[in-house]
């Protein structure tokens, strides 16, 4: 015998062992009444046992049901064989057919979570179709077969009111009381189910925040049931207090799960029907019993749907809450989640982990790389995090690590060393990400104080990246506070300067050996007191806070205004303007620049557009499209800082440009460093082979000028040629 067959046999024996006593016990517990002088079950609980066992065991229970029902009917009713098997068929035939249809509609797991998904189908087939079909089969059987006198009323030989009450009782048995047996039996047969039931249904209802409400509701239910069932023999109870039971259970939906609510409702209904003489005192007529059964059945359906809807709303609220606490791209907890976490774990340590060159890689590979890197770093850090420690998403190139316990400096240093020792693989490329970190203790911080601290940690982590080290905010909090405050103030001054046009254009000449050429436009910014803000300070702030496109367009407008007032006869280049990297990453940047020149009536050939080597050789489609659009509109394109990027010969072969500007790092020591001289000479040879013009920056001595001209450099720029002068001159 196979293992599956042995398992099925064991289940069948278990089902039979449970069925035999339960059928007799449930019959004894079934509520009764007298209608038209005949004894009637207000609900026949053996039917509830049969349905509960079917839900638990499935098709394995069919044979045990046949045996148990045959023994049960033989002992209780002493039925002959024909009548007994007809009775069994009337009960099991519709039930088996309903189970088969439910399997078709709901799939092979139709028996599991009976009050969950597919509730409507189960209520229809199990709660209404099955009892109705049973009663219909019993009615027609009674027309053809004679049954003992004690059963003839159930097989059609009775009044219409008796049939209606019997029909409602069978419906109540399937719809209400099935789960009075189902849940206890499931918990008795499976300890895992019992633990899950208690954990999901009861433990959550008796948490510290909800315990008072749950106990109060149970006490209110107990008092109401006691009042309704106590033999007071007063019309006030049956006339006015019965509706309270529905109100109490409607309120209980908020405090208990669907299964607990339905189980308590089934028990309460059984108690009320069993003691119906008390709670229906003075109105305990056949019509009243019919009405109360109909009301109980109707409210059961409403209660189940209301419970499910409430649980779904709670589930949806939990999902929305989780989404509000999670960054949608990285799927990491966000700053809102950090605020909640700090409250739950006071006295922890906030650690800002910065990836120094992630911004550069993101420009080349896109936002997907940034998301992947942050997820990968979180995975690498997970084994080193203890209970209550998490990684949180921060904007830009940073992550926030919340640590607890002693020695945060040593632990964070170990994490940074681990990350710096590994490369991150992306589409076959191995990326070397540089990490640095800073930490500080979060002691009773308000949200505003925490955000201020995060700003300080971000600046300190940025400084620490250069040495791949870990810095402690507590050791230099005063200095960091001063620096971050200065950066905030500087940002305000820069934004005000851009908005109020508080900057001036300077021009530095770029000449060939004959002293002819053009000038590069440089910008000098001033604060509200008239003091100059040097480019080394405001350029990084402009780039970091996404002011690049706005700033570059302001510079172009100012230059074009000057050109319109000072037209020239020739259409040759007069100036060059350097665009920041993020400007060309804006989708409409190229079209906006062309439209701006058309508006001012200035020819594109008048101004050379300078872009960095990283922009010109990047894989960012938007930047390349903007450069191609500008070049196609008549602008000449100069590649600034040439030689310092990540160019390769394939990219240089495909590069579309007109001028290359050799970075000053190759010029300053060209007279003493033979390697620099060879590099500059090779760049000139490559440029002339492509038909490009060459500009050398940082030319400061006549010796540098002569050597560069001998190498074939076309234009020179530096203090030897001329210092920047205000454009108004």
Automatic annotation (TrEMBL):
It is found in: Cell membrane. One of its GO terms (molecular function) is cyclic-guanylate-specific phosphodiesterase activity. Its main location: membrane. Gene3D superfamilies: 3.30.70.270, EAL domain. It is a multi-pass membrane protein. The keyword Signal does not apply. The chain crosses the membrane at residues 61-79, 85-106, 118-140, 160-182, 202-226, 232-251, 263-283, 289-311. Residues 487-729 form the EAL domain. SUPFAM superfamilies: EAL domain-like. One of its GO terms (cellular component) is plasma membrane. InterPro entries: Cyclic-di-GMP_PDE-like, EAL_dom, EAL_sf, GGDEF_dom, MASE1, Rev_trsase/Diguanyl_cyclase. This is Sensor domain-containing phosphodiesterase. It comes from Tenebrionibacter intestinalis.
């Amino acid at each position: 015998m196979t293992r599956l067959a042995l398992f099925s046999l064991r289940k069948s024996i278990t089902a039979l062992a449970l069925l035999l006593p339960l059928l007799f016990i449930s019959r004894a517990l079934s509520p009764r009444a007298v209608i038209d002088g005949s004894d009637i079950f207000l609900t026949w609980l053996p039917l509830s046992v049969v349905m509960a066992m079917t839900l638990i065991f499935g098709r394995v229970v069919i044979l045990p049901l046949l045996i148990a029902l045959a023994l049960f009917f033989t002992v209780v009713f002493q039925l002959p064989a024909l009548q007994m098997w007809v009775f069994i068929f009337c009960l099991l035939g519709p039930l088996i057919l309903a189970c088969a249809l439910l399997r078709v509609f709901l799939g092979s797991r139709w028996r599991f979570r009976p009050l969950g998904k597919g509730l409507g189908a189960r209520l229809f087939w199990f709660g209404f179709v099955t009892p109705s079909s049973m009663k219909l089969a019993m009615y027609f059987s009674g027309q053809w077969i004679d049954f003992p006198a004690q059963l003839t009323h159930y097989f059609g030989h009775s009044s219409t009111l008796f049939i209606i009450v019997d029909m409602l009782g069978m419906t109540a048995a399937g719809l209400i009381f099935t789960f009075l047996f189902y849940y206890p039996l499931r918990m008795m047969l499976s300890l895992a189910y019992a633990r899950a039931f208690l954990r999901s249904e009861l433990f959550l209802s008796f948490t510290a925040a909800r315990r008072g409400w749950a106990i109060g509701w149970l006490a209110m239910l107990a008092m109401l049931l006691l009042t309704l069932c106590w033999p007071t023999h007063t019309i006030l109870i049956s006339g006015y207090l019965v509706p309270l039971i529905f109100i109490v259970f409607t309120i209980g939906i908020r405090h208990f799960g669907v299964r607990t609510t339905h189980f308590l409702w089934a028990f309460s209904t059984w108690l009320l029907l069993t003691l119906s003489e008390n709670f229906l005192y003075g109105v305990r007529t056949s019509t009243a019993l019919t009405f109360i059964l109909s009301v109980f059945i109707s409210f059961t359906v409403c209660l189940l749907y209301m419970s499910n809807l409430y649980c779904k709303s709670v589930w949806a609220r939990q999902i929305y809450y989780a989404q509000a606490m999670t960054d949608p791209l990285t799927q990491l907890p966000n700053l809102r989640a950090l605020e909640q976490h700090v409250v739950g774990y006071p006295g922890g340590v906030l650690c800002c982990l910065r990836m120094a060159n992630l911004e550069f890689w993101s420009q080349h590979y896109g936002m997907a790389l940034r998301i992947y890197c942050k997820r990968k770093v979180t995975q690498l850090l997970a084994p080193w995090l203890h209970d209550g420690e998490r990684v949180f998403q921060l904007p830009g190139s940073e992550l926030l690590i919340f640590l607890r316990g002693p020695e945060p400096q040593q632990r964070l240093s170990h994490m940074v060393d681990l990350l710096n020792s590994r490369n991150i693989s992306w589409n076959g490329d191995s990326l070397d990400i540089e990490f640095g970190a800073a930490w500080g203790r979060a002691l009773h911080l308000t949200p505003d104080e925490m955000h201020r601290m995060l700003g300080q940690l971000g600046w300190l982590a940025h400084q620490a990246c250069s040495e791949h080290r870990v810095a402690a905010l507590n050791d230099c909090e005063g200095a960091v506070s001063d620096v971050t405050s200065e950066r905030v103030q500087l940002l305000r001054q820069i934004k005000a300067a851009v908005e109020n046009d508080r900057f001036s254009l300077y021009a530095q000449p770029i000449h060939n050996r004959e002293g002819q050429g053009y000038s590069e436009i440089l910008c000098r910014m001033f604060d509200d007191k008239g003091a100059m803000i040097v480019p080394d300070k405001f350029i990084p702030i402009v780039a970091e806070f996404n002011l690049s496109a706005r700033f570059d367009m302001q510079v172009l407008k100012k230059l074009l205004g000057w050109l319109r007032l000072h037209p020239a006869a020739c259409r040759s280049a007069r100036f060059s303007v350097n665009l920041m990297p993020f400007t060309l990453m804006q989708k409409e940047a190229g079209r906006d620049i062309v439209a701006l020149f058309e508006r001012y009536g200035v020819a594109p050939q008048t101004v050379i557009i300078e872009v960095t080597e990283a922009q010109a050789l990047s894989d960012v489609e938007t930047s390349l499209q903007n450069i191609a659009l500008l070049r196609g509109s008549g602008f000449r394109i100069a590649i600034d800082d040439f030689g310092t990027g990540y160019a390769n010969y394939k990219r240089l072969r495909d590069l579309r440009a007109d001028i290359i500007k050799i970075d000053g790092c190759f010029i300053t020591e060209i007279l003493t460093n033979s390697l620099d001289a060879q590099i500059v000479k090779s760049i000139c040879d490559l440029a002339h082979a492509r038909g490009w013009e060459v500009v050398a920056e940082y030319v400061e001595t006549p010796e540098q000028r002569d050597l560069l001209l001998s190498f074939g450099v076309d234009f020179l720029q530096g203090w030897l040629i001329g210092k920047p002068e205000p454009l108004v001159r």
